[in-house]
Amino acid sequence: MDDGSASKSQASSGRFTNKREGYLEWPDYFMAIAFLSAQRSKDPRTQVGACIVNEEKKIVGIGYNGMPNGCSDDLMPWAREADSILDTKQLYVCHAELNAVLNKNSADVKNCTIYVALFPCNECAKVVIQSSIKEVVYYSDKYKDRPAFMAAKRMFDQAGVTYRQYQPSKKKIVIDFSLIEAMSDCVIADMDSLKINAPTVDSQPDSTS
Ligand SMILES: [Zn+2]
């Protein structure tokens, strides 16, 4: 009996013959990777990630904010304010955008799009412009009234780098490792269950006659 839902009957019959619905769209995928890489950050206050994507929708660089290579996360300061600026993180931390560009696995990032959680600061705007990235997709612009971010926009506007706020198609993306165990069928075909209409030995012409 037809229940009026193709996907429902497909699921209930155990035959998944049509394309899955609700899969991750490209922009959500790239922004989610930026957010996921931010989870690697040791900064106790601000975790930011960046993901650089080329014109073929291939990821060519990922980064998050952190201390320079060889500078110990345990010895360097993480405070935003201190009696001396030498004891604040500002002078040391490499921002996500810089790390993503420097981590690139391609010759360059010309005409790429960078997905970032926060609108780039002025220093990162320089990196974006000088590396010929053409577009910035950001999630939050919460510091837009600060000079560093106003300066970033000023440079982007003159250099022709476009920027737009990311509009997520879903509010949350959950990664549940255990889901793979619960999936009902195997990616590898069970050869015993396959029926292949290949000619049998008996049906082939008898070469002896
Ligand atoms: Zn920055």
Description of the molecule:
- There is one protein chain.
- This protein has 209 residues and is α/β, with parallel strands linked by helices.
- The protein has six helices and five strands; from the N terminus they run ααββαβαβαβα.
- It has a five-stranded mixed beta sheet.
- Helix 4 packs parallel to helix 5.
- It binds zinc ion.
- The site of zinc ion has 6 residues, from helix 4.
Structure characteristics:
209 residues, alpha/beta, five-stranded mixed beta sheet, globular, APOBEC/CMP_deaminase_Zn-bd, nucleotide biosynthesis, metal-binding, Cytidine_deaminase-like, hydrolase
Mean pLDDT: 87
C-alpha-based Rg, rounded: 25 Å
Query: What is the string of helix and strand elements?
Result: HHEEHEHEHEH
Beta-strand portion reads 5-15%
What oligomeric state do these chains adopt?
single chain
Shape: globular
Family: Belongs to the cytidine and deoxycytidylate deaminase family.
Protein name: dCMP deaminase
Domain CMP/dCMP-type deaminase: 25-163
Pfam family, one: dCMP_cyt_deam_1
